[in-house]
Amino acid sequence: NGEWVPQVCYGRLEHILVCQLPTGKSWGAFSGHRRVFAVLSPCSTGGRDAAAEIVSHTQTHHSIAVDLHSVCAVIGRFQTRGKWVIVDRT
């Protein structure tokens, strides 16, 4: 239906990329502008919210690049018993 639905997603930050986009119609409103992207490895957490419950993971997915504006918070994690536990105090 085209409605925006917020989701809780966690990922490990790998890189931050600063890109100067070329001019051209295909870039639309972003034509000729600088954009900042975060390269993340998404964590397999099943959409659970670590601010509301204990959330851990053992796997990450392939890296993705997202617009840094879509990152809402930076969280922590620690490893115990073969898994990573996410610390989200947002």
Question: What helical percentage do the residues reach?
Answer: under 10%
Question: What's the shape?
Answer: elongated
Strand content: 35-45%
On the 0 to 100 scale, the average pLDDT is: 94
Uncertain residue segments: none
Order of strands across the main sheet: 1-2-4
SS-based class: mainly beta
Topology:
Layout: E1 11-20, E2 34-42, E3 55-57, E4 64-67, E5 76-80, E6 83-87
Antiparallel strand pairs: 1-2, 2-4, 3-6, 5-6
Overall description:
The chain is mainly beta and 90 residues long. It has one domain (11-87). Helix content is 0%, strand content 40%. It is built from no helices and six strands. The chain has strands at 11-20, 34-42, 55-57, 64-67, 76-80, 83-87. The strands form two sheets. The chain has a three-stranded antiparallel beta sheet with strand order 1-2-4, with no helix packed on it. A three-stranded antiparallel beta sheet has the order 3-6-5, with no helix packed on it. Strand 5 and strand 6 (83-87) form a beta hairpin. The chain is elongated and about 50 Å long. The model has no long low-confidence stretch (mean pLDDT 94).
